[in-house]
Design brief:
heterodimer, A: alpha/beta, six-stranded mixed β-sheet, four-stranded antiparallel β-sheet, 29% helix, 26% strand, globular, B: mainly alpha, 12 helices
């Protein structure tokens, strides 16, 4: 089985110091993985190296069997970045935000009616089709998060990567969100969630990886819950669930 | 009618700039680059002064300087984001100082430079109109051609990069198109006020419509209409055309903002009503 993400002895350092040390990991087709780490542990850096947005200081990063920095490697990757609530002043409808996920599929012109159909279908998969004409900033944080997943799905990805997807999202929205991801994974999409908490997806994940002191280790679900408890002690206010 | 008969090149030039500037401005505002037009205007003024000094077309010289300046500004912002404020200040104020010094040394400080500072739309010649028409059409055509990538980058630059959109190239194209618009727009409203046509119609449209495409189209229509209305008012009231155009668009912005606030208040009241019932 080919690996969708493959990191071999990857290290990365900013000017302020080393963040990743000899990280080796692989993500397979249909995988469902949570990468846990405390705030500031380098989770987002690891994700950016895996996506080719940052070049490793040493080691090898492959994405869909190409060097991660090759833009073609990301054609079948959906990415939901970490973000605060979208400004209500962003003049864009939900449909336009989802269509933006298909922007790289063609170089020139506007979006075709076929692409609009694909965007609507992506919204249907996350239960947000009825909001297509609404302004994105008018939606709640949980609804916006589902729209951003639809944007990632609009590109028809094999691999979906989400950075802290449920930060600031209420419990009900987290449960709906977990349901959407479960259905996608069952449908064949590999999922990688980068988080400091298992959240509502704890029951569904197939593997948990932990990032600590620049190293990544695979841990059991029980160990993961214990680790989340430790993060919670250091950052009270973050919900511990799973 | 006399005004239209004698000043139709001015009316067409104003409508073209009024429509093209917000088309680019929609993307600039969304990228929080609203005041970039103002800064590039400073650089364009240095181009005008050097053009006048070298006795070459000030418009061509301003365009060249604006494009180089816009690309330089983009590089500075990306290379050293923490220090970009100071670097941009050096760029912008250094340019306007260069313009003043070159213009005074070449004896062009009064009439010629003043025209470019505050616009000289009523003296638009046929050849200038053709240049403005070609450049304005090119700006709008490129926006239509690159719309997919420009939209994705405006909504979320990081996600667009991951999706494979050539964001860095589009950023440079956007800055160059902004610079061309400033270069063309300075004929109509002058370098000091051209940024208003890039930004304010976008603010108006954003208050009225939901979609990005709608915002761009309404902003272009508002920009063109404001330019024409401003010219007619300036003719009737014998006021400066550039200032009148910008005051019209400013007034429309205040009106649209009031409408948005009234709509929000009505929605809030509507939402609260069932709780009191």
């Amino acid at each position: 089985m080919s690996n969708l993400i493959e990191l071999d002895d990857v290290s990365f350092a900013y000017e302020s110091g080393r963040v990743l040390s000899d990280v080796t990991l692989s993500i397979n087709a249909r995988d469902y993985v949570v990468l846990l780490g405390a705030n500031g542990s380098g989770k987002t850096t690891l994700l950016k190296v895996a996506l080719g947005l940052l070049k490793p200081t040493s080691g090898r990063a492959l994405l869909l069997e190409r060097p991660a920095t090759d833009p073609r490697s990301r054609e079948r990757v959906g990415y939901v970045p970490q973000r605060a609530v979208i400004s209500s002043r962003l003049p864009a409808t939900v449909l336009e935000v989802v269509l933006a996920g298909r922007a790289a599929k063609r170089r020139f012109g506007g979006f075709t009616s076929e692409e609009r159909g694909q965007a609507i279908r992506a919204l249907e998969r996350v239960g947000m089709a009825e909001f297509a004409r609404r302004r994105i900033g008018e939606l709640s944080g949980g609804q916006q998060q589902r729209v951003l997943i639809a944007r990632a799905l609009a590109a028809d990805p094999e691999l979906l990567i989400l950075d802290e997807p449920t930060a600031g999202v209420d419990r009900d929205s987290q449960l709906q969100f977990a349901e959407v991801l479960r259905a996608l994974n069952t449908g064949g999409v590999a999922i990688v969630i980068v988080a400091h908490d298992l959240g509502a997806v704890g029951r569904d994940v197939k593997r948990v990886l932990a990032l600590h002191d620049g190293h990544v280790d695979q841990i059991s679900l029980e160990e993961a819950k214990e680790l989340v408890g430790i993060f919670h002690e250091h950052h009270p206010g973050h919900e511990v669930a799973g | 009618m006399t005004f239209i008969r004698y000043f139709w090149p001015a009316l067409i030039a104003a409508a073209i700039v009024g429509a093209a500037a917000p088309a680019i401005g929609t993307f600039l505002v969304q990228r929080r680059l609203s005041l970039i037009g103002d800064g590039v205007g400073h650089i364009a003024l240095a181009g005008v002064a050097i053009g006048l000094w070298l006795k070459i077309s000030p418009l061509a010289s301003a365009l060249g300087f604006s494009i180089l300046g816009a690309v330089g500004v983009d590089r500075l912002r990306r290379r050293a984001p923490d220090e970009s404020d100071m670097a941009l200040a050096l760029f912008f104020y250094g340019s306007i100082a260069l313009a003043v010094v070159v213009a005074s040394a070449s004896g062009q400080f009064n009439v010629n430079l003043f025209g470019f500072l505050f616009g000289q739309v009523l003296t638009t010649s046929h050849s200038e109109l053709i240049t403005i028409g070609i450049l304005g059409a090119a700006v709008i055509a490129l926006v239509a051609l690159l719309y997919r990538g420009l939209l994705a980058s405006a909504i979320d630059e990081e996600a667009a990069t991951v999706a494979g959109v050539p964001v860095s190239i589009l950023n440079i194209v956007l800055m160059v198109l902004g610079a061309v618009t400033v270069g063309v727009g300075m004929q109509v409203v002058g370098v000091l006020l051209v940024a208003a046509l890039l930004v304010l119609p976008v603010g108006i449209a954003r208050n009225l419509v939901r979609s990005f495409k709608g915002t761009m189209l309404v902003a272009s229509a508002v920009g063109a209409a404001s330019a024409l209305i401003g010219l007619f008012i300036s003719n009737a009231a014998n006021t400066a055309p550039s200032g009148t155009i910008v005051l019209v668009v400013s007034g429309l912005f205040v009106l649209s903002d009031g409408m948005r606030r009234a709509r929000l208040t009505a929605l809030r009241k509507q939402a609260e009503e069932p709780q009191h019932a």
